[in-house]
Amino acid sequence: MSEVIDHATLTFHVTPGYGVTARDLLGYSQAVRIGDRVETSGQGGWNDDLVVVEDLEQEIVQAFDNVGRTLAEAGATWVDVVHVNSYHKVEPGAEAIGDEHNRVMVREFRNRLGGRAPVWTQTGVTVLGLATMRIEIRVTALVGSAG
Question: Which secondary structure element, helix H or strand E, spans residue 34, and what is its range?
């Protein structure tokens, strides 16, 4: 059965700064809102010029900040997040993503989600959109679901 979407409730959102650059260069938006549901594209640990910081911990924190900025553009916050996909650059043949990534990810979840524990899928990959990226995070949020 197909779902009919009222296009009056569908809006695409472009984060000021890096989102405008990504839209102009690559033709995509940072988020789409359909009713109370917000889906983001993958957010990296980049600044507004799409430059990725060198320190992994700072990169992960910046990616979380960028998710927050993108959610805000669509009228949501981290406490509305119900699902997270994270993509972590690993060496070919690696057996796990590793504690260095997980320690920061878990800390940021606890700092930003207001006690909510969303579903989370972690995927190890060997390449991401920019050669310097080591993390990319995309989320689904349901506005107002936090309570």
Answer: strand 31-34
How far does Cα 129 stand from its chain's mean position? Answer: 13
Q: What is the pLDDT of residues 112-132, one digit of tens each?
A: 998 889 999 999 999 999 999
21: amino acid identity, one letter: T
| Percent of the chain scoring above 90 in pLDDT | 86
Q: Nearest-5° angle of CA 81, CA 60, CA 51?
A: 115
Q: Angle CA(57)–CA(83)–CA(90) in degrees, nearest 5?
A: 40
Tens of pLDDT, residues 25-50: 999 999 999 999 999 999 999 999 99
Q: Which residue's structure tokens are 């009056």?
A: 8
pTM, two decimals, is 0.92
Classify the phi-psi angles of 98: left when phi > 0, otherwise alpha if psi is within -120 to 50, otherwise beta: left
**Contact 44/92 with Cβ under 8 angstroms?**
no
